[in-house]
Write a structure and sequence with these properties.
- The protein is mainly beta.
- About 10% of the residues lie in helices and about 35% in strands.
- The protein has a 10-stranded antiparallel β-barrel.
- It is globular, with a radius of gyration of 17 Å.
- It starts with 8 loop residues before the first strand and ends with a strand.
């Protein structure tokens, strides 16, 4: 069970952890005010969240250091027109040895609640195979509209911005996300992210509260590719 393939965001994804070189990711600003820290990064928290979430990610380094983890690749591509209140991402997750066959394809709708709180809603796509490997401006994305997506009720991930570290922390609700995988009744995801990496800990639980799938020791560490 230790080496279970992560689901990511059954949601998005955690052991509260480190960033590069396993050191805390902390702003160099001395003030603790959210406004000052955001100004130091030259962007507001919502723009920063978008920067953190989009891109190509890999757990290769973690897999080389710990055989309990697979080398997983995560691709998160912005689609459609964003607004000051929300943005959409097309998401693929695949084994490094089978990038052409992602085992999970989703769309995330990330909504701003206020300057510190955000929610990522998770959606399934109809006929997802036609989107595999497509680039941001590919016309295939014009064939779907937000209203045609199927939301995974209860599996949204709530994120809170920590201005002292310039990172986001959060997860799913308690027993809100149903799961039938490997005898599970419900699933949870915990996530920590900044603009260098995201850490995802996805777990499935049976109706007795026993873990039946997912990593046991801690979350998958996905480093963003340069």
């Amino acid at each position: 069970m230790n080496k279970s393939i992560p689901v990511i965001f059954i949601a998005l994804i955690s052991v509260l952890a480190s960033c590069r070189n396993n050191q805390p990711f902390v702003s160099t600003e001395t003030t603790e005010s959210s406004e000052s820290l955001q100004q130091g990064r030259k962007m507001d928290s919502f723009t920063y969240l978008k920067k953190c979430m989009q891109g190509d990610f890999s757990s290769e380094e973690q897999s080389l250091n710990d055989s309990d983890y697979f080398d997983i690749r995560l691709r998160m591509v912005p689609i459609w027109q964003s607004s000051p209140e929300q943005f959409y991402l097309y998401v693929e997750q695949a084994m490094s040895t089978a990038l052409e066959k992602p085992y999970r394809i989703r769309v995330y709708r990330v909504v701003k609640k206020d300057n510190e709180n955000f929610t990522s809603y998770i959606y399934k796509l109809r006929d997802p195979s036609r989107f595999i490997g497509k680039k941001i401006n590919d016309p295939v994305f014009e064939t779907i509209i937000p209203d045609s997506l199927q939301m995974l009720e209860g599996c949204e991930v709530n994120l809170k911005f920590d201005a002292t570290k310039w990172e986001f922390n959060g997860g799913t609700g308690e027993k809100t996300c149903p799961s039938e995988r490997s005898g599970a009744s419900w699933a949870t995801s915990k996530v920590t992210m900044n603009d260098e990496r995201m850490i995802s800990w996805d777990q499935g639980w049976d109706n007795q509260g026993k873990q039946v799938w997912g990593a046991v020791k801690g979350g998958y560490i996905f480093k963003k590719n340069e």
